[in-house]
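This is your field. Have a critical look at the following sequence-structure pair:

***
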Amino acid sequence: MVLMEGRRKITELMMLLLLLLIGCSASQIQASSENEPDAIFYEPFSESFEGRWIVSSKDEYKGVWKLSKSEGHDDYGLLVSEKARKYAVVKDLGKAVSLKDGTIVLQFEVRFQNGLECGGAYLKYLRPQEAGWKPEEFDNDSPYSIMFGPDKCGSTNKVHFIFKHKNPKSGEYVEHHLKDPPSVPSDKLSHVYTAILKPNNEVSILIDGEEKKKANFLSAKDFEPALMPAKTIPDPDDKKPEDWDEREKIPDPHAVKPDDWDEDAPMEIEDEDAVKPEGWLDDEPEEIDDPEATKPEDWDDEEDGVWEPTKTDNPKCSLAPGCGEWKKPMKMNPAYKGKWSPPLIDNPSYKGIWKPQEIPNPSFFETEKPDFEAIAAIGIEIWTMQDGVLFDNILIADDEKVAEIYRLTTWKPKFENEKEKQKAEEEAAGLSDGLSGFQKKIFDLLYKIVDVPFLDAYKPKIIDLIEKGEKQPNITIGIIVSIAVVLLTVVFKILFGGKKPKVTVPETDRPAAAETSNTQGNSEEKEDESEKEDAAVPPRRRPTRRET
């Protein structure tokens, strides 16, 4: 009996110890859970989006959204499934999120699985529906507080950050664009974009967890237009006086044309000393009928006229100095002076460039903090020429650590896996990882250089070269040399004066596409639309031998 009693007490004691351990573990788990920061909103697209996200019913949005796996992963995302379409989908947050107090982090992933030549992949953080919009009618006019994300097409290559702010004096909502935003990564990997709005009026833009841009909402150097308007504006009713003379120089009224000035002398004259090159083929035409040309079977002489074969270069001319009738070349006429004009002198009546007087700006206001509108929904409203764009892991949080945790646990493993796969593919193609990394840095630098103001005239051509280099890594050196020639030519002219040179940049083989992506809902949209329509380039006629 004593033995049985002892065993019973030992059993009871062990049960008490086990319960105590379980209780302690539960307390620790609960405490850990309570101390761990949580997300305000998180969308991993681990299940169907239908019913939770509302696709716009507007006729212009023909693009089909799909739930799809990221290439090479089991992770799902929201997929842009068709090329050259407009897309619009929106998710109501249920409860509006204030942007006025504390830190707010906006974060999401995007992967351009087929690359990106022309398209947007930005998110719009929308104001409450009381502002006058409906989810099923979501479009580019739906009022947003912040627009954030990548956009690349033609000369546009940037990660947008735009906020709309209501002017307390005029009541007008004004878009404020981040100046010098970072460029979009030029690969097919998953990238995570983060915007951190801080209570000290700063915003930080991160790409893959690395800060690429820091700005202050109150600084005119960081946003265009500035949040706080100018104190004064030009008086719209002020008119320039009729006798106001803006000519700094005027023709000398006392100057007289010299007697020996011949205005009729031609600029060029025939070079009398020129001699026809030996071997010139006078009786050979520069072009001959193409011997391989054949008359189409459906050609009707009565309806289409007499068929003539197409022309091709005369092969005999390539072996001789030239073909056809030889004419003496022209040279500059030493007697040429052109039309005479009197020299310029200082204008005694010159008053300077007229400007209207400044008056107080009725829309001027000062503030210590931006008065952000709350966000109540997240929308994706884009026009893209590429398919395969995949959105994933959309996050709103009030703690930077939360965003970092999600980056490390959801994005980082995918990115490392994709990078290893890309490295293997490059090695199989004979490209070293070091060269690939070097090229990416070079292209990122070139995208920044092309934004320098004095290169505006050459920007489209340079962008074409950069995009060609991204598609054909083996010509990187040639691309750099071509752009260097443009830069040196422009700098030379700036230093030594003269007219702006007409720089010829090599043509690229880039497919006809839109020139600037459609950032709907902002002031760039109309320009973008017109550039997309002008994207197709007509074929060029081959020059003849004489033209060269």
Remarks:
- Residues 142 and 323 are 67 Å apart (CA to CA).
- The longest helix spans residues 2-35.
- The first strand starts at residue 41 and ends at 43.
- The chain is about 25% helix and 25% strand.
